[in-house]
What we know:
Blueprint lengths: L7 H81 L3 H82 L4 H13 L7 E3 L14 H10 L3 E2 L6 E3 L3
Parallel strand pairs: 1-3
Antiparallel strand pairs: 2-3
Amino acid sequence: METKALSPEIESLLALQADDRVLDALAAKIAGLEPRARELDRARAAAEEAITRARGAVEAEEKRQAVMQARIAEHKQLHTRNVQQLEAVRKLRDATAATAQVEQARQMLAAEESELETIGRRLGELRHAVEDKERALAALDEEQRAAREALAADHASVEGELATARARRDGTAIGVSRALLGRYDRIRQRRKGTGDVVYPLRGPSCGNCDTAIPLQRRTIMQRTGAIEPCEACGVLLYAGN
Length: 241
């Protein structure tokens, strides 16, 4: 059966589909950059989390230190009063009891001051740990700088290609009627990632799913250049040359 040359609208629609393939490939390139960015971000987030934990440990130890300092100050006052009471007593029995109080307070103070020293040493170690982790983060930022710059350059390059491809696609779309363009876009959205939207007839069948197309519809498509949907898979069909 004699076939006609493709109509300008079919030519435009096929050109539009080719433009969309380019856009899909560029979108895939953008998506391909995301794992690199996530890996860099994960490494930095881990370093920041380590700093946060180290600072939290310092804050907790500082609170313990403040509590211990207040307790020691209170017990020093108590010890001073006990010493004054000891110096004021005259009876042996009272002196014995006061001496015991003084000794008890002295031992308590000694234990608390020892604990305060331990807290001070631990606090110093924790502060050094914070400094180490901050230096590690700074080193990581320096290590990542080149990678992030390269990633940003790649992203900007692909975005530039995308802008050009979108502009080309917009120009191509002018050659397609609004109604057909709407149908095409809806099908493309529905089939996103699963293949093209527009296929030629393959003999008597759909070029996508091989479902047979009734002779009457094929004849109309061949004579008029009409674009028809496949009732089985939903793609748009045209009669090729």
